[in-house]
C-alpha cells in the first residue's frame, strides 16, 4: 500500500513563465543596457578606488507597492541626480522583495495586487516593467535580491544589489551573489555582527556550483567564477548603531584583506536611525563628515525615501495614502532633495 507522503501541506503547484519568455515580452533596449553597463562600471570605479571623490547614494522607497508613485519619485529624483552627478552617483532603490521577521506583505513580486492573492507571475512582469521604465528615464536601479530565482528575470536591469541582514548568512545567497554581474553589498547581521558579512564577501568572491534555473526555467547546475565586486553595508543591529568613527574604522579594518579601496557603505535607516526616518539626515551628516575628514574607505550611503514622509500600515481592505511607504518609514521628498543637494555642496568644499 502506497501512502501519500509528498506535498502534504501543499495546496497548489503552478508553473511560472520562463525568464526567457518574460524577457522576450519585455525586452531591454540598447539605451537601458548601456546605462546599466556604465553605472555598474562607475560603481566598480568607486569601490576599487579608481574614483575617490564621489559617493554612491542608494535612495528611494523602502519598497515599491505603487508603480505610479515610483514613477513620480523617479521623475523628481532624475534632475537632482543630474545636478549632483560630479559628486554623487545616485541609484534609485527599487525594492520588490521584502524579507519578513515573521509574517506580512512580502513585496510587489510576491503580492502585486496587495490583496493576498500572491499573483507572482504578474508580480515578476510588473517588477520588470517598472525597472524598464525607470531605467528608461535615465535613472539606474538597485534592489535587494531575496529569492535565488528572481535574478534570472530582472538582474539585467540592476546596477547594484544588496543581500539583506536576514540572508547575508545564507549559503544559498552567497552562492547566488558569486554569479551576479553587478556589484553586491552585504549587510551586517540583524544583531550587528560584521563577521557574517565578511564571511559572505569571502564566500561570494569564490567559484561555486549550485542548483538554480536557466533562462528556460529548467532546474540546472549553475557554475560561477566568483564576484570580485562586493562590499559591506553597515545598518546597525540589535538596537545599536554602527556608523561612528570607531565603527567605520572597525569595518574598514575588517574588509582590508579583501583588497578594496572603498569597501564600506552606511545604511542610514534601520538600527542606525533607531527606525526614525528623520534621523537619517543626522546619520548621513555624520558619515559625510567622516568622509570629509579623510575616511576614504567610505564609498556611499543608503537612504529610505518616498514622496511623503513616514509609513502607513497595509491592510487589503483599506485605501492607502499615495506616495507613502507601507514597510519602513521613509524621508519625505522635500527633506530628501535638500539632503542630496546639501551633501553635494559639502563635497564641493571638502578639504583635500
From TrEMBL:
Q: What Pfam family does this protein match (any one)?
A: DAHP_synth_1
Q: Which GO terms describe its biological process?
A: amino acid biosynthetic process; aromatic amino acid family biosynthetic process; chorismate biosynthetic process
* Pathway(s) where this gene product acts: Metabolic intermediate biosynthesis; chorismate biosynthesis; chorismate from D-erythrose 4-phosphate and phosphoenolpyruvate: step 1/7
Q: Cite a single GO MF annotation.
A: identical protein binding
Q: What GO cellular component entries does it have?
A: cytoplasm
Give the reactions, separated by semicolons, that this protein catalyses.
D-erythrose 4-phosphate + phosphoenolpyruvate + H2O = 7-phospho-2-dehydro-3-deoxy-D-arabino-heptonate + phosphate
| UniProt xrefs under SUPFAM superfamilies | Aldolase
Instruction: List the EC numbers from the record.
Output: 2.5.1.54
Member of which family?
A: Belongs to the class-I DAHP synthase family.
UniProt-recorded name of the protein: Phospho-2-dehydro-3-deoxyheptonate aldolase
Organism encoding this protein: Nitrospira defluvii
Amino acid at each position: 500500500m502506497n501512502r501519500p507522503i509528498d506535498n502534504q501541506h501543499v495546496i497548489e503547484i503552478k508553473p511560472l513563465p520562463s525568464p526567457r519568455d518574460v524577457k522576450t515580452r519585455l525586452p531591454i533596449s540598447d539605451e537601458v543596457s548601456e546605462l546599466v553597463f556604465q553605472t555598474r562600471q562607475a560603481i566598480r570605479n568607486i569601490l576599487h578606488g579608481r574614483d575617490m571623490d564621489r559617493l554612491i547614494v542608494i535612495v528611494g522607497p523602502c519598497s515599491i507597492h505603487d508603480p505610479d508613485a515610483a514613477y513620480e519619485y523617479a521623475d523628481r529624483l532624475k534632475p537632482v541626480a543630474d545636478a549632483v552627478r560630479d559628486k554623487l552617483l545616485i541609484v534609485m532603490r527599487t525594492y520588490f522583495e521584502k524579507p519578513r521577521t515573521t509574517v506580512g506583505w512580502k513585496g510587489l513580486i510576491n503580492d502585486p495586487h496587495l490583496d493576498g492573492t500572491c499573483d507572482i507571475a504578474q508580480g515578476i512582469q510588473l517588477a520588470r516593467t517598472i525597472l524598464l521604465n525607470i531605467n528608461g528615464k535615465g535613472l539606474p536601479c538597485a534592489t535587494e535580491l531575496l529569492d535565488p530565482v528572481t535574478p534570472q528575470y530582472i538582474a539585467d536591469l540592476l546596477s547594484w544589489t544588496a543581500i539583506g541582514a536576514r540572508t547575508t548568512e545564507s549559503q544559498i545567497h552567497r552562492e547566488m551573489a558569486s554569479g551576479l554581474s553587478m556589484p553586491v553589498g552585504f549587510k551586517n547581521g540583524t544583531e550587528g555582527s560584521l563577521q557574517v558579512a565578511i564571511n559572505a564577501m569571502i564566500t561570494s568572491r569564490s567559484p561555486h556550483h549550485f542548483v538554480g534555473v536557466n533562462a528556460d526555467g529548467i532546474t540546472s547546475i549553475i557554475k560561477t567564477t566568483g564576484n570580485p565586486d562586493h562590499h559591506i553595508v553597515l545598518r546597525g543591529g540589535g538596537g545599536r548603531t554602527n556608523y561612528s568613527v570607531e565603527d567605520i574604522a572597525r569595518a574598514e579594518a575588517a574588509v582590508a584583506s579583501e583588497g578594496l579601496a572603498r569597501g564600506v557603505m552606511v545604511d542610514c535607516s534601520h538600527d542606525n536611525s533607531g527606525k526614525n526616518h528623520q534621523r537619517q539626515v543626522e546619520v548621513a551628516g555624520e558619515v559625510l563628515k567622516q568622509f570629509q575628514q579623510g575616511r576614504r574607505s567610505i564609498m556611499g550611503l543608503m537612504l529610505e525615501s518616498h514622496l511623503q514622509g513616514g509609513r502607513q500600515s497595509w491592510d487589503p481592505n483599506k485605501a492607502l495614502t499615495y506616495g507613502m511607504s507601507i514597510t519602513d518609514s521613509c524621508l519625505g521628498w522635500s527633506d530628501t532633495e535638500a539632503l542630496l543637494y546639501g551633501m553635494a555642496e559639502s563635497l564641493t568644499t571638502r578639504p583635500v
